[in-house]
């Protein structure tokens, strides 16, 4: 019996090749998408789960507000972690991490820029499960100037030679001895590091400074620890020490501080939630977002649902072709349940065939999927013992859901009717098929609108005037490597015909990481006069190089001696001084120092507000301070011959900083990196939209084919009576256009609600207008019309003799 069923299924596949292709293609696409999304989602949910202590590990976050500015940071003061470990019995272990920023690492004649270098306490390996291949975890980071490398970095610097005991030089002046080699950190960790340096090497890590928060602090709690009680204890301990800072720097008490609406507190945040649920400042790496996990999961389910609907429509469309087969089997004694099992088995057969094809496509498309998702999946992930059973289960469930209705529908045929050539139709079945088409185009329209809105927002970001000219600004990293030649290098660059301006600064005009500090309006230390501001320390050529507009006062000058203490502020900060109704120029700001002292600066100019951070956040108060540490050299170019300019730059660099790595990028590339997640979401949404359109069109093609088959004789009679191709095509198309219009009307409010939520993440955003929805409605109608017209015209031009010859 099963052999007969298999033969019948195979013959039907071969006999109706177009239907078979559409069925298998639809299910293959659906299974492929759902499996790849499952791979992505499970990876996102797995972050830091490899750590056996993950469920008991927490990071301490800092939350504060001063005036109108709030600071939400993933970093805490240096003494917080060690103190809590000593004072609180619930804390089993503690470890602090601190980024070294961009590091220049040298060994003999090899010198590289490294971005994943972290300082860590000696307890690192007791908090995080990073296995060592060489060395002793107990003392690897105990001594000052010790370093632990990943095996990949060790091979990069030392080849196959033993790394233990070798010395490397960091930033040209600090020697570190390699004491251990560890396995590469898993990719599903919320921070990346190829090298850990001993925390004892940092003098700042041993200072009792509660006034700045720049250490990522992790604690492991003992089993059964009371989280709520511990949070209160940590907060009370923090307030006690932070009150002394308020008294020293702001000349105020904790009571006066909080009475003004300000606050400062520490909170415990679970390690396993950091990657998806933490979106605060000073993260060690770019985190994911749980809402995108939900969105992709829903989209994966919907794509699979569309594939099932497509299968149902195509199967019922050719049901009439198998009517006589059903009639003969029933006359021969087959039961309805037996026939249902046969047709359901055929669906499982097609599903499994689609699953095999989907795995093959997943293997072929894996590099593209990695590029799209930003992950590093391998072939082993696809054929793993975790992925294969789940993907097969998805396939079986899909086959059952897709085949259940067609199996019940086909097995319900009445033998007498179908053997006489009558068609099995009912109003309820017609409503179901129409409902499925509406659902398909509802999903397709929602995805179309989403993709279009995301595209429009990204275009808005790319083209928005952010307040300065980021185009053709070349940034050279690590200016400090020039030592005393920074100014000489700058003057050499100004001699290049392609260079118009050069500026040296401690930070970029736009960056994910913004420096924050507090200033005092005037000379009176008080909470009311204190403002949290962002800051850039740079030379006098910064404004000219970046094309920033001065709206009041003047720019700083190299020739004016008094400008050594001159600063520029933006309009947001100027409003605190009464701008624009009151003059700001000539007023003073103070930088708090130890023992209540102030370093005073004079305001000489007000800059037009510019976006120095992401468009997700509103522009905050900003001060441009004089000089500072030389990290970056900003070069304004006016040439299209970039290769020639880069060659000249590199030659000059080698002359003035021999044996030092030359690193550069363009500022507009840095700007684009701020929206890497959004760009990826845009691409993924576009891909899903195209897939949904393809599957929906397959379903529509199946239904119009079914309708053409049902109305074959009617069309023949109309043609004999003189109806033209356009009339017949319009007759068949209008019913489907109505269905598409219904789906569009339902989709509009859903899409508007969803995209409004997404756009709310941006402080600067587009507004969704009526023409966007009208355009998408027109696009959906055109797509549906083209799909329907293909089969409708085919039916309209058919020879009426063929359809009427049995009458």
Provide structural commentary.
The chain has 807 residues and is α+β, with helices and mostly antiparallel strands. The protein is built from 25 helices and 24 strands. The strands form 3 sheets. Strands 1, 2, 3, 4, 5, 6, 7, 8, 9, 10, 11, 12 and 13 form a 13-stranded mixed sheet that branches. It has a 6-stranded mixed beta barrel with strand order 16-17-22-19-21-20. Strand 16 (515-521) and strand 17 form a beta hairpin. Helix 2 (17-45) packs antiparallel against helix 21 (676-710). The radius of gyration is 34 Å and the shape is globular. The chain starts with a helix and ends with a helix.
β-strand number: 24
| Molecular shape | globular
By DSSP (H or I, 4+ residues per run), the number of helices equals 25
End-to-end distance, in Å?
Answer: 37 Å
- Can you tell me the residue ranges where pLDDT is under 50 for at least 5 consecutive residues? none
Helix coverage percent = 40-55%
Q: Structural class of the helices, strands and pairings? A: alpha+beta
Strand content: 15-25%
Radius of gyration: 34 Å
Biggest β-sheet description: 13 strands, mixed
Q: pLDDT average, as an integer?
A: 83
Summed up:
With 807 residues, this protein is α+β, with helices and mostly antiparallel strands.
Please supply descriptive tags for the structure shown above:
807 residues, 13-stranded mixed β-sheet, 6-stranded mixed β-barrel, 49% helix, alpha+beta, globular
Secondary structure elements and pairings:
Blueprint: H1 2-15, H2 17-45, E1 57-66, E2 69-73, H3 80-87, E3 91-99, E4 103-107, E5 110-114, E6 117-120, H4 124-127, E7 132-134, E8 146-150, H5 151-158, E9 167-170, E10 174-182, E11 195-198, E12 216-221, H6 227-250, H7 254-259, E13 263-270, H8 274-277, H9 290-317, H10 323-331, H11 336-373, H12 379-382, H13 387-411, H14 415-419, H15 427-463, E14 473-477, H16 486-494, E15 499-505, E16 515-521, E17 530-538, H17 542-546, E18 550-553, E19 566-570, H18 571-574, E20 588-592, E21 598-607, E22 622-626, E23 632-637, H19 642-656, E24 664-666, H20 667-673, H21 676-710, H22 712-720, H23 725-759, H24 770-796, H25 800-804
Parallel strand pairs: 6-11, 8-10, 17-22, 19-21
Antiparallel strand pairs: 1-2, 1-12, 1-13, 3-6, 3-12, 4-5, 4-9, 7-10, 8-11, 9-10, 14-23, 14-24, 15-23, 16-17, 16-20, 18-21, 19-22, 20-21
Helix pairs in contact: 1-2, 1-11, 2-9, 2-11, 2-13, 2-21, 9-13, 9-15, 9-21, 11-13, 15-21, 15-23, 15-24, 21-24, 23-24
